[in-house]
């Protein structure tokens, strides 16, 4: 070995011309490593010499091929890292200062930038990244870079910045939307240093134009790709990507560059570079362009003082106009680039550009060039709506509508001229295009404010003109369906139109509007009649039959008549909303009479005439066109007849009503027309114009014939394509509008028929679960929960009688006799009818049924369960399923629970029947699970009743049942009986102690324990079914039963750790994991209670760790189940074990212990569960633990700033204050107030979405303290007032269109969990009002001991009256704040609480507050509030 023995040999070896210096000897890098590691080898300035050689070698050989390139050799970098950064951190400071003394001159001589460039270039072309090597290199360069960077010129740093960009784009697939190889790097601080250094150098450079040119020429495409892809898909490096983006923006849009661009318009370098990049990657450019434009605008605004003259001779707003003009110039180039492509990406880019114009307020109304540019965008958007009816163009239509909506928000005048073109193209826009409704809302809002609604109404009616409808392909019927489903006939738009007409139509416009609407309706119907007359004449049926030149019209004439009919029906459907909503109450009496006369004329000339014409000839009702016209006319008639405030003569003649009624049963009548006819005739009955008996008969006939269980109706008339949907629509109309009238008109037979329909039409099996429309089940379910239905005595009696009648066949069925029967005792159709009856009973709230009926249905339910099961098992192909058995058993369970006492109802035979029965073949797995769960609930009710009876001395049934279960375990039969035995154990353990039961009963239970042990122990020891749920559940209950019986369980094996380890490495289904986790935790808890004192702490630690791990993998719902299994185990836990578990939990709560935030949140939840289910005699332990936890939460701000921890901490307080109020002490209040203050304090940072749960939790804590521990609150009323002030302040909303600084001023005063875009709603105002009302409620303090008996109910009215003014002041300040507002809904919900504060305040304190605490605006608000308070205050006069 040729190793250096002294300093001279070492230096000669490093400076040798060959590597290795001696043939066959070690390489230079190995020599240097050995010399550095050898502390006995003395070399003067050893570190400097080695670093000098390393950097020189890296710089000299940086261009060699990869296999011989030292920059790719980890040994060089590791040695450099060991020299620069010592492993002994205690001496790092002194060593670092000594190193810098010789390192800075060295770096001035040997530049490290080329080395870094070489490494980044090699990294970008490498097939894979060596993460370990990369980390070492970046740590070395992070140490060297700050020392070397002052000597680098801006061009060098730009190259380094470009290398970072190329590394970010190093991907094999050009179209791959990723951050290149950046996602594979663990430490990005070095790259951030490079970018930051470039930005600093750029800001100080005098050659910004040169850097700008080089950047555009070399690196712009890489920068565009990186910021476009990373910002869209890759969220792992937000800081680095943001720095890269800002560096590019500062290069392109720095002050000097923008100034040159503004002064010299011929500079087109950027636009040319963008155009060139767009030719290769247009999608990337289109995604980046809106953000680029926004950054340009922000930079122009930032430097506006330096860019534009601000002399005194300039008009006000001159600088703003200059900024707007320059921004729109750049917008023009961006829009031109975006319009180079005509696809969805191009449209999305153009919409985003317009949104920037709106957001930054860039349009100057005096800039005609800019307005022309935006109008051009509007015209292109209107052209994009040419195929709005085609769902295949929905993406283009949506973008075009977004563009028009954005232009309307920028300046409505930009699109006002295009309304006559836009409206006709919107009539058939698919429902999936939501921006269409947003656009219409903007149009209505603008025209409402400008009082221009009459013109908008005319445009809407003209949009349904025939020549517009004919442009939509698909024929008249298809066009009618599309237009009926469009935005103009949507319920939301019609509601907005009705609201606008009612609130914003001026009295002077009412008559004009009636004239316009009447003219539209008359013209539409007249054109239809004209076309129909011509068609009749051309067929030879009219006076023109001799004109031969017109004898052969094109075949589409019939289609044209359909278009005329569709036009009339659509106009009638939209315009009736206008006529119904006219603000007639604002008119004078004379004008109101005139308006009603005009509406009456419209009704007579259109609706009444159309109905008479359609029914005048029998052949007309067979025509599709006439049916559509008649439906539209009846809709217009019904709307005007039901309009509030209108007194029109709308009664039909008896003959006309009879003809209408006869149409219902005619063949070929559309379902839409049937619905309109029936609801019109019901109205005629309500005004006494027609006899209701025939109408009701025909309605019931239609429902009995066409009501289908599997049909769904969307609620719109165009979807009534079949009479099945028509039946649902008729049922909805009857139930929703005419039920009281029907009950008054119907005779007993008709009531019975309706009750039969309601009972037999409800089949949930046929209901599409994913449907959002109306179904038979949804309508009947809503009806049965409506109190009005149960107040109709006649209908209620018929309904209950139908239930009894339909289940009457069960009277003859003897339950015990048919348990052993092999054939069904009743016909299949009768059994199906019974099942339907119980399905309806399940939908009825229990309180609405008489107790006698409950008892009768319960007795029949036992037989019904057996009959349905026998029929399902022996009659294949029936409509009966497992769900019908599930329904019956759920009815039995609910009824027994509601009646309360089941001792006289429980049947031992029925219980054994439930335990023995098996589901028939063919049941789905899900149906079987649901039926099994319902069966277990019913069995549990029976068994608990038996256990209570055994406790009273009647133990025969329990002994027999336990013996039965023992035999099941002895035979090894796993099924319903085994699961029922576990429920019985739960009942026995929770009901009493062994001393409460007889010896015979205890002997049977001991035998059951022995059989369970014999069954489970061999199976668990073999390990064949170690994670079988039923087996583990048996083992868990075996532990519980053994503790209850005080049986020595020391010989039982300990399985908890093995089971939890297997569960934590689970690779199966998540549902199985969530099922097994509670059982395994219960086993761990059981083993914890049997351990000796010497090792129970270790087992307790393992149990807590297992809970945290299982909570992590089970999620929120699974954790709730874990907690339920803990409750029973916690109550029987020894005091020492319980105290130890609490200590272990508390030890893991501090954040410095290193647990993940999610795990700490689980521990807080675990702690709350332990405290609520604590064993007896542990109150002091619980109080001490609660105090420690609350002090910890109050002292560490992270428990409030981290959303997950905050939620659990507040929930901890809620559960303690609500469920354990007596355990609270005065010392606990200080930490509680600190936690609440921290939760409500203002914050400089805010979360992305508002967490309203935090607000409700704070309100719940205060409410519990006020209601239950008033004695503690009395001494801390100032703290209560402060928190109430903060709660009121949280109800503020930031005003729209505020600047960034103004928004921050408001948001800095709001808690962290409130987001500016999602203010608190009226629900939170209602909760706070309820809390303020609680202050005046008299309550009893929840304490223990003799003091509890001497209490009397009191409230906080008198004590808190001194603090009420401060809470009211907070409300007044919030209302009068110029930067924010409190919504009308919040103020309305908050009023009851404010009135209670006013009542506490009194007039004297009010006057004092007005003088000392309020300004002019505050006084006005207080006067208004006090006036409202006076209106509702009770003064004792009645």
N-to-C CA distance: 115 Å
- Secondary structure class reads mainly alpha
Q: Strands of the biggest beta sheet: in what spatial order?
A: 1-2
- Provide mean pLDDT, rounded: 84
Q: What is the radius of gyration? A: 41 Å
Shape: globular
Oligomer kind: single chain
Walk me through the structure.
- With 1438 residues, the protein is mainly alpha-helical.
- It is 69% helix and 0% strand.
- The protein has a two-stranded antiparallel ribbon.
- Helix 3 runs antiparallel to helix 4, helix 26 (491-504) crosses helix 28 (557-580) and helix 28 runs parallel beside helix 30 (624-641).
- The model is unreliable at 172-178, 233-237, 544-559 and 766-770 (pLDDT under 50).
Provide a concise account of the structure shown.
By secondary structure, the chain is an all-alpha fold.
Which keywords apply here?
1438 residues; globular; two-stranded antiparallel ribbon
Strand-helix topology:
Layout (H helix, E strand, L loop, with lengths): L6 H8 L13 H10 L8 H15 L13 H11 L7 H18 L3 H13 L5 H18 L5 H15 L20 H16 L3 H26 L4 H15 L2 H9 L5 H12 L1 H21 L1 H4 L10 H21 L5 H17 L7 H17 L9 H17 L2 H4 L2 H8 L8 H15 L3 H11 L2 H4 L5 H10 L6 H14 L2 H32 L18 H24 L8 H28 L7 H18 L12 H11 L6 H16 L5 H15 L16 H15 L1 H7 L2 H13 L15 H9 L2 H5 L1 H14 L8 H4 L9 H16 L7 H24 L7 H18 L8 H9 L8 H27 L4 H16 L4 H16 L7 H24 L6 H17 L10 H9 L5 H21 L5 H36 L3 H13 L9 H16 L6 H17 L2 H4 L1 H17 L6 H15 L11 H17 L1 H4 L3 H14 L2 E2 L5 H8 L14 H13 L22 H4 L3 H13 L3 E2 L2 H29 L3 H17 L6
Antiparallel strand pairs: 1-2
Helix pairs in contact: 2-4, 3-4, 3-5, 4-7, 6-8, 7-9, 8-9, 8-10, 9-11, 10-11, 10-13, 10-14, 13-14, 14-16, 14-17, 16-17, 17-19, 18-19, 19-22, 21-23, 22-26, 23-27, 23-28, 25-28, 26-28, 27-28, 27-29, 28-30, 29-30, 30-32, 31-32, 32-33, 32-34, 33-34, 33-36, 34-37, 36-39, 41-42, 41-43, 42-43, ...
């Amino acid at each position: 070995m040729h190793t250096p023995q002294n300093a001279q040999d070492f230096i000669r070896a490093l400076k040798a011309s060959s590597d290795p210096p001696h043939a066959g000897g070690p390489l230079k890098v190995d020599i240097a490593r050995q010399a550095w590691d050898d502390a006995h080898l003395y070399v003067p300035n050893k570190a400097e010499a080695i670093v000098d050689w390393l950097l020189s070698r890296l710089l000299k050989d940086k261009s060699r091929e990869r296999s011989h390139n030292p920059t790719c050799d980890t040994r060089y970098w590791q040695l450099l890292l060991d020299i620069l950064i010592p492993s002994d951190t205690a001496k790092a400071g002194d060593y670092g200062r000594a190193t810098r003394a010789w390192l800075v001159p060295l770096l001035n001589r040997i530049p490290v930038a080329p080395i870094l460039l070489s490494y980044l270039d090699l990294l970008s072309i490498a097939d894979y990244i060596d993460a370990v090597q990369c980390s070492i290199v970046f740590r070395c360069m992070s140490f060297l870079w700050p020392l070397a960077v002052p000597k680098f010129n801006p061009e060098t740093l730009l190259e380094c910045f470009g290398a970072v960009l190329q590394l970010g784009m190093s991907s094999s697939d050009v179209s791959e939307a990723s951050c290149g190889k950046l996602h594979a790097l663990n430490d990005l601080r070095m790259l951030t240093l490079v970018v930051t250094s470039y930005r600093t150098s750029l800001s100080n450079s005098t050659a910004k134009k040169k850097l700008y040119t080089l950047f555009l020429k070399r690196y712009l495409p890489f920068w565009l790709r990186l910021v476009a892809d990373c910002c869209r898909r890759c969220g792992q490096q937000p800081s680095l990507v943001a720095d890269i983006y800002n560096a590019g923006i500062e290069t392109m849009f720095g002050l000097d560059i923008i100034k040159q661009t503004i002064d010299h318009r011929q500079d087109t370098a950027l636009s040319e570079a963008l155009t060139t990049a767009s030719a290769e990657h247009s999608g990337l450019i289109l995604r980046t362009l809106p953000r680029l434009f926004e950054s340009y605008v922000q930079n122009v605004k930032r430097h506006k003082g330096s860019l534009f003259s601000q002399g005194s001779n300039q008009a006000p707003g001159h600088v703003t106009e200059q900024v707007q003009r320059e921004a729109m110039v750049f917008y023009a180039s961006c829009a031109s680039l975006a319009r180079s492509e005509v696809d969805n990406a191009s449209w999305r880019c153009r919409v985003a550009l317009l949104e920037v114009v709106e957001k930054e307020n860039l349009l100057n109304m005096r800039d005609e060039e800019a307005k022309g540019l935006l109008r051009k965008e509007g015209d292109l958007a209107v052209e994009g709506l040419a195929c709005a009816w085609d769902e295949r163009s929905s993406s283009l239509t949506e973008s075009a509508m977004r563009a028009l909506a954005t232009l309307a928000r920028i300046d409505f005048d930009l699109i006002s001229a295009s309304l006559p073109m836009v409206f006709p193209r919107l009539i058939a826009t698919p429902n999936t295009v939501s921006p269409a409704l947003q656009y219409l809302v903007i149009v209505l809002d603008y025209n409402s404010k400008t009082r221009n609604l009459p013109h908008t109404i005319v445009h809407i009616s003209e949009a349904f003109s025939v020549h517009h409808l004919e442009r939509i392909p698909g024929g008249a019927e298809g066009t009618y369906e599309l237009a009926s489903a469009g935005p103009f006939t949507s319920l939301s738009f019609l509601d907005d139109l009705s609201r606008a007409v009612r609130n914003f139509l001026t009295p002077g416009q009412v008559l004009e509007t009636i004239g316009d609407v009447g003219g539209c309706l008359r013209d539409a119907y007249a054109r239809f009649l004209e076309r129909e007359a011509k068609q009749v004449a051309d067929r030879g049926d009219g006076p023109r039959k001799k004109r031969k030149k017109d004898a052969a019209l094109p075949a589409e004439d019939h289609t044209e008549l359909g278009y005329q009919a569709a036009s009339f029906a659509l106009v009638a459907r939209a315009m009736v909303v206008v006529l119904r909503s006219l603000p007639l109450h604002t008119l004078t009496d004379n004008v109101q009479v005139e308006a009603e006369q005009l509406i009456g004329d419209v009704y007579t000339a259109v609706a009444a005439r159309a109905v008479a014409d359609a029914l005048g000839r029998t052949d007309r009702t067979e025509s599709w066109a006439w049916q559509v016209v008649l439906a539209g006319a009846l809709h217009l008639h019904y709307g005007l007849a039901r309009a509030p405030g209108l007194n029109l003569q709308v009664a039909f003649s008896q003959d006309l009503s009879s003809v209408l009624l006869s149409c219902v049963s005619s063949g070929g009548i559309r379902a839409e027309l049937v619905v309109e006819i029936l609801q019109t005739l019901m109205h005629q009955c309500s005004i006494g114009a027609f006899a209701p008996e025939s109408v009701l008969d025909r309605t019931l006939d239609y429902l009995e014939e066409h009501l289908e269980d599997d049909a769904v109706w969307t609620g719109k008339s165009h979807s009534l394509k079949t009479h099945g949907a028509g039946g649902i629509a008729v049922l909805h109309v009857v139930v929703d509008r005419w039920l009281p009238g029907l009950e008054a008109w119907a005779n007993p037979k008709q009531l019975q028929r309706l009750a039969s329909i309601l009972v037999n039409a409800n089949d949930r099996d046929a209901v599409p679960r994913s449907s959002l429309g109306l179904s038979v089940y949804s309508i009947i379910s809503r009806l049965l929960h409506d109190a009005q239905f149960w107040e109709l005595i006649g209908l209620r009696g018929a309904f209950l009688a139908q239930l009894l009648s339909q289940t009457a066949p069960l009277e003859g069925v003897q339950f015990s006799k048919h348990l052993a029967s092999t054939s069904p005792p009743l016909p299949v159709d009768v059994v199906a009818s019974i099942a339907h009856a119980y399905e309806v009973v399940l939908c009825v709230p229990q309180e609405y049924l008489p107790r006698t009926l409950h008892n009768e249905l319960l007795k029949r339910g036992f037989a019904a369960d057996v009959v349905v099961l026998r029929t399902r098992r022996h009659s294949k192909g029936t409509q009966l399923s497992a769900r019908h058995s599930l329904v019956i058993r759920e009815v039995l369970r609910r009824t027994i629970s509601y009646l309360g006492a089941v001792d006289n109802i429980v049947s031992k035979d029925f219980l054994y029947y439930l335990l023995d029965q098996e589901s028939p073949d063919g049941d789905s797995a899900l149906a079987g699970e649901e039926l099994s769960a319902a069966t277990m609930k019913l069995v549990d009710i029976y068994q608990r009743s038996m256990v209570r009876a055994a406790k009273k001395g009647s133990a025969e049934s329990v002994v027999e049942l336990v013996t039965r279960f023992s035999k099941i375990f002895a035979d090894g039969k796993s099924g319903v009986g085994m699961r029922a035995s576990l429920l019985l154990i739960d009942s026995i353990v929770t009901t009493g102690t062994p001393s409460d039961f007889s010896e015979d009963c205890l002997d049977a239970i001991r035998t059951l324990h022995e059989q369970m042990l014999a069954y489970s122990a061999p199976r668990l020891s073999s390990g064949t079914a170690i994670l079988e749920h039923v087996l583990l559940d048996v083992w868990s209950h075996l532990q519980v039963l053994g503790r209850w019986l005080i049986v020595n369980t020391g010989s039982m094996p300990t399985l908890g750790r093995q089971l939890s380890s297997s569960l934590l490495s689970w690779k199966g289904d998540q549902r199985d994991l969530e099922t097994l986790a509670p059982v395994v935790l219960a086993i761990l808890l059981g083993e914890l209670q049997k351990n000796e004192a010497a090792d129970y702490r270790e087992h307790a630690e393992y149990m807590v760790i297992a809970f945290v791990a299982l909570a992590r993998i089970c999620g929120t719902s699974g954790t709730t189940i874990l907690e339920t299994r803990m409750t029973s185990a916690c109550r029987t836990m020894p005091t020492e074990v319980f105290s130890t578990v609490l200590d272990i939990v508390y030890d893991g709560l501090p954040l410095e212990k290193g647990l993940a935030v999610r795990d700490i949140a689980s521990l807080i939840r675990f702690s709350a569960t332990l405290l609520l289910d604590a064993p007896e005699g542990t109150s002091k332990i619980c109080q001490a633990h609660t105090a420690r936890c609350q002090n910890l939460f109050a002292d560490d701000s992270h428990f409030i700033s981290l959303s997950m921890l905050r939620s659990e901490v507040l929930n901890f307080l809620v559960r303690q204050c609500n469920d354990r109020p007596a355990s609270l002490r005065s010392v606990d209040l200080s930490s509680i107030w600190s936690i609440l203050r921290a939760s409500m304090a203002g914050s400089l940072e805010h979360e992305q979405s508002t967490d309203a749960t935090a607000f409700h939790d704070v309100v719940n804590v205060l409410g519990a303290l006020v209601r239950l521990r008033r004695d503690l609150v009395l001494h801390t009323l100032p703290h209560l007032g402060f928190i109430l002030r903060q709660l009121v302040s949280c109800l503020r909303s930031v005003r729209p269109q505020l600047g960034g600084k103004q928004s921050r001023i408001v948001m800095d005063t709001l808690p962290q969990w409130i987001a500016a875009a999602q203010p608190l709603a009226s629900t939170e105002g209602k909760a706070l009002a309820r809390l303020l009302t609680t202050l005046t409620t008299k309550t009893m303090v929840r304490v223990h001991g003799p003091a509890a008996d001497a209490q009397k109910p009191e409230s906080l009215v008198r004590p808190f009256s001194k603090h009420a003014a401060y809470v009211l002041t907070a409300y007044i300040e919030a209302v009068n704040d110029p930067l924010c507002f409190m919504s009308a809904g919040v103020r309305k919900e908050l009023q009851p609480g404010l009135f209670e504060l006013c009542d506490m305040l009194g007039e004297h304190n009010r006057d004092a507050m007005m003088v000392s605490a309020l300004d002019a605006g505050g006084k006005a608000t207080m006067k208004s509030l006090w006036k409202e308070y006076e209106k509702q205050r009770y003064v004792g006069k009645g």
